[in-house]
Amino acid sequence: MEQNIIEIKGISKTFEDNCVLDDLSLKIRKNEFLTLLGPSGCGKTTTLKIIAGFEEADNGEVLFNGKDISTLPPYKRPVNTVFQKYALFPHMNVYENIAFGLKIKKTPKDEIDSKVKEMLKLVSLSGFEKRKIESLSGGQQQRVAIARALINEPEVLLLDEPLGALDLKLRKEMQLELKRIQQRLGITFIFVTHDQEEALTMSDTIIVMNKGKIQQMGSPEDIYNEPSNAFVADFIGESNILDGVMLEDYKVKFCNTIFDCVDKGFNKDELIDVVVRPEDIKIVDSNDGMLKGIVKSIIFKGVHYEMEVEEENKTWIIHNTKFAEVNSEVGLDIYPEDIHIMRKVSQ
């Protein structure tokens, strides 16, 4: 049986007249990499700060291993936080920055030395002990911040968009590095980001948030392949989203065409949202497709072409390895398992 290390019960938070969190409840398992994902203002950072103790909820509880920690100050909570601005001490070298927390606790020097060396090895910075902070790259500074947080052996590490200041190549490297560190240590990471690819790359569980509410919670595969509503489908990766009618079980109509699908349990003739991922649309001869349209643009993306195809009812975004000339007519085929049906939800 999996153990929940943190449980949030009915948390609400309002700043002036702005409701940032609206009766939020969630459970976070021990040793998992969980990501809070959503647009700016959705409440993800406020959730993190409430867990850390830097913000106080208007109501609700934060439980840690079943005990309410809602009134505990940050320094008494078994969590550490790494922010986008690393807040390293510029007057201290790498060793002194990492050792700072242990020195405050009056840890014996030999133990500090041993733990600092262990942390430097963990974050691939062995030999950097005497380096000045300003001499380090952004990625190296981030590793120092992570080592400084981890040396205190928190049960949970909170990360508030820690990769935001890095360039694209370094961000991708650090995504893999963070996941490696989390798996090696086996502690719980709670990560905040608005970057969908980042969330999909690193997470065991993703929580998609919008307007202070959870829109969907699940594995990266579930979130991407089976979005629960149009907001999630649109926010996670690229999607073609359009109105449709669920005629009956396994039959859906959109673009004035009836398609087979794999969904059931809807009302007869229920109005629904249809989601089709760009990579799930097949380009065929114009006479063979269930739909047909005119190629309006094509861009080479390295592993595929991205096309805009204008069909009578919609402009489709399509990712395909086949090249098609601009202004040529093509057919579009969509297999039943690639049509995702969702109930309409007011946002």
Q: Would you summarize the structure shown here?
A:
By secondary structure, the protein is an alpha+beta fold.
Structure write-up:
The protein has 347 residues and is α+β, with helices and mostly antiparallel strands. It has two domains: 4-230, P-loop containing nucleotide triphosphate hydrolases (Rossmann fold, 3-Layer(aba) Sandwich), CATH 3.40.50.300; 238-343, Beta Barrel (OB fold (Dihydrolipoamide Acetyltransferase, E2P)). 24% of the residues lie in helices and 36% in strands. It is built from eight helices and 20 strands. It has helices at residues 44-52, 94-104, 109-122, 138-150, 168-185, 196-202, 220-225, 230-235, and strands spanning 4-15, 18-29, 33-37, 59-64, 67-68, 79-83, 156-160, 188-193, 205-210, 213-218, 240-248, 251-254, 257-260, 270-276, 281-284, 291-300, 305-311, 315-320, 329-334, 340-343. The strands form four sheets. A six-stranded mixed β-sheet has the order 6-7-8-3-9-10, with helices on both faces. It has a five-stranded antiparallel β-sheet with strand order 13-12-11-14-20. Strands 15-19-16-17-18 form a five-stranded antiparallel β-sheet, with no helix packed on it. Helix 2 (94-104) runs parallel beside helix 4 (138-150). The longest helix has 18 residues, at 168-185. The chain starts with a strand and ends with a strand. The mean pLDDT is 91.
